Amino acid sequence: MAEKKRIDEPTGTETVGHEWDGIEELNTPLPRWWLWTLYATIVWGIAYTVAYPAWPLISEATAGVLNWTSRDELKKEMAAVDAGKAPIVNAIASTPVDQLKNNPQLLQAAVEGGRAAFRVNCVQCHGTGAAGSKGYPNLNDDDWLWGGDINTIHYSIEHGIRNPDHEQTRMSQMPAFGRDGLLKPAEIDELTAFVRAASRQQPANAAAQRGAALFATNCAACHGSDAKGNRELGAPNLTDAIWLYGGDADSIRKSIHDARYGVMPRWGEKLSPATINMLAAYVHSLGGGEEERVQTAAK
Amino acid sequence: MNEVSTTGPKSLYEKRQPVYPQKIDGHFRRLKWAIMAVTLAIYYVTPWLRWDRGPYAPDQAVLIDLASRRFYFGPIEIWPHEFYYVAGLLIMAGIGLFLVTSAVGRAWCGYACPQTVWTDVFQHIERAVEGDRNAQVRLAAAPWSVEKIGKRSLKYSLFLLVSLATGGAWIFYFADAPTLLRQFIAGEASLVAYSTVAILMATTFVFGGFMREQVCIYMCPWPRIQTAMMDEKSLLVTYKDWRGEPRGKGRRTGELSDLGLGDCIDCNQCVAVCPTGIDIRNGPQIGCITCALCIDACDRVMEKTGRPRGLIDYATLEDCAVEKSGGPPKPLLKSILRPRTIAYALIWSSVGLGMLFALGNRTRLDISAQQQRNPVYVQLSDGGVRNSYTIKLRNMQTRPREMRVDLTNLPGASMWRDGQTRDQASRSIQVVVPPDALAKLPMFVVAPGSGDASEKFGFTVRSTDGEGEMDSTEAIFERPRK
């Protein structure tokens, strides 16, 4: 490298002494305050590593003299959020669930809280959108096994469905007509034809007419003489377009042969009263919620 | 070009050379005073101007309401989704700087830049407390005494006061100014307000009191960009060396031309008044912010020596060449009006006019529909199908507005809001949207089960307050696939 340092005439500054195809570089000194800012950032960096977790060791990093951790910070923030929510959660817990609608703000808080609780406790069976699947009811629609007003929904959540060890649970059981030999296979086929005709999925043929007589003797006690179900017993409406276990002939035949026995835990023993109120409000808000009937039988 | 042998290693770092600009009066100094008064007045007065927007909106003429995400500028209210107007303003500011630079050089740097204005304020305070240039040099060199300590502490106290006023005024753009001032004095303002003032106070104190020209030379990108934008037609503060050289230091006025010397008597006045401490006679350089104070200084000297003014003057390099060869000086207007500046002016004004046009034609309501996709559809017991949407109605006026939402297409369909039941369903729903707000309406739409698996339809919103504004949005109705 040709070291030909020279003074650049217009600026009076020395060059670095090397030439790149005719281009030279001036050796302009940096301002000294710039150097001090560099030292300041170094001091800051060292102070930071002393104060906060920084150096990775074998099993964990140095803790720092301030003992700061992101977990603690999260814990504090969560506690603050819970404390902030406490008044409204208490208000939801102490309001009868059918009175929530009188306070739109409280109702909205309950619905949002219910949405969160649903995500944790209910989605495993009913799905993230509460749309259910085969054997698990869709909670968005307007068809309810046990009733769709908010008190009834609340009761179903609190006491569960078919919890034999719990007295107040919703309880009913359909006989397994085929497996237990109550009806012959041909009779089951005729009943199937009747149910499919009642739900307007096929024309009312001769088999369906024979099935009508069988229905009156074997099924009408629970499903009603008009096959529209009975919510006292959780007996589904067989004439509508909604089928929990499928409305095709094979599925209906299997339901009559083996019967169905859907179970839901009683959430009253696991969740707080506020949470159950919230869940009821949320499920009721999904679009199928019904108004309370004026005369509700005392439970 | 003289070769040098290096004698010992040179330091890589350089201490700031203190600058003690001398007081000067003249045309450009008075222009600087005027621009300083105008810019400071704009900065301090703007947040206190009021603008009546009715009972539902703030009455501050210029307000950047970060908490509720609104920007008020007189009759114009900007929502966050209209941020492109702010982008447009920034584009105009950028092109405006190009325009100013190509027309009149670094006029922004010399007159209107906050760094220049506040440095100027601080240097005036300095002269008022410590005296003019020579007194300041003497004081800096003097040993510490009661007088020096007194002057220095008075100076820095005044610096801090100005800094407080600077940072203090900034926060009033972001909240109701009279309320915030009361809260600020009473100690009830938010921590953000106090820390913003503290940070701006610190930067003003450091940048205006100590860094000064270092900010322009080392920290600011704009001088570097301007360097690239300069050409031989750009207006610069120029020393006319063909007139000034060779310099006749210490010569009597009459002798100069007899001795074949130039007009420059090497009095160093141009260097003494320079706020960035450069010697303009070394030619155009990055330290020159074209504040033109050296023109004022040199003109005075030329007057005393009986030579024509303008040895240092605003001129383009092209003009200088013409003048040097004895040609007639070009009128100033001609160096300002040229294709490049006209093109910048056209772009600048078309962006502005485009924004004004868009502002005049924007609708102040807006509808959008978001389909709830989990589940996409719900089979109902009567064979019908239900879809759910979140309808968002935006009322961008500062008063409550009545609006009607209608279903378009989708025969046999009807809708109802949350809180209603299917008995209340209809094809048309009346709502009142609160002032300056976005209303979210969860909406259930039910339609017959027979039809396409995906059917297009729409929601339309109309204001029913007589203004007849409307907007519509498309949506899809989903059914089970058979």
From TrEMBL, chain A:
The keyword Membrane applies. Keywords: Cell inner membrane, Cell membrane, Electron transport, Heme, Hydrogen ion transport, Ion transport, Iron, Membrane, Metal-binding, Oxidoreductase, Repeat, Respiratory chain, Transmembrane, Transmembrane helix, Transport. Residues 109-199, 206-287 form the Cytochrome c domain. Gene3D superfamilies: 6.10.280.130, Cytochrome c-like domain. The chain crosses the membrane at residues 33-51. It comes from the Bacteria. Binds 2 heme C groups per subunit. Its cofactor is heme c. InterPro entries: CcoP_N, CcoP_N_sf, Cyt_c-like_dom, Cyt_c-like_dom_sf, Cyt_C_IC, Cyt_c_oxidase_cbb3_su3, Cytochrome_c_Oxidase_Subunit. Pathway: Energy metabolism; oxidative phosphorylation. It is found in: Cell inner membrane. Component of the cbb3-type cytochrome c oxidase. Belongs to the CcoP / FixP family. This is Cbb3-type cytochrome c oxidase subunit. It comes from Sphingomonas caseinilyticus.
UniProtKB/TrEMBL annotation, chain B:
InterPro entries: 4Fe4S_Fe-S-bd (IPR017896), 4Fe4S_Fe_S_CS (IPR017900), Cyt_c_oxidase_cbb3_FixG (IPR014116), Electron_Trans/Redox (IPR051684), FixG_C (IPR032879), Helical_ferredxn (IPR009051), Ig-like_fold (IPR013783). Residues 457-482 are annotated as: Disordered. Pfam families: Fer4_18, Fer4_5, FixG_C. It comes from the Bacteria. The lineage of its organism: Bacteria, Pseudomonadati, Pseudomonadota, Alphaproteobacteria, Sphingomonadales. The keyword Membrane applies. The chain crosses the membrane at residues 31-49, 83-104, 156-175, 191-210, 342-360. Keywords: 4Fe-4S, Electron transport, Iron, Iron-sulfur, Membrane, Metal-binding, Transmembrane, Transmembrane helix, Transport. Residues 254-283 form the 4Fe-4S ferredoxin-type domain. The gene is ccoG. This is Cytochrome c oxidase accessory protein CcoG. It comes from Sphingomonas caseinilyticus.
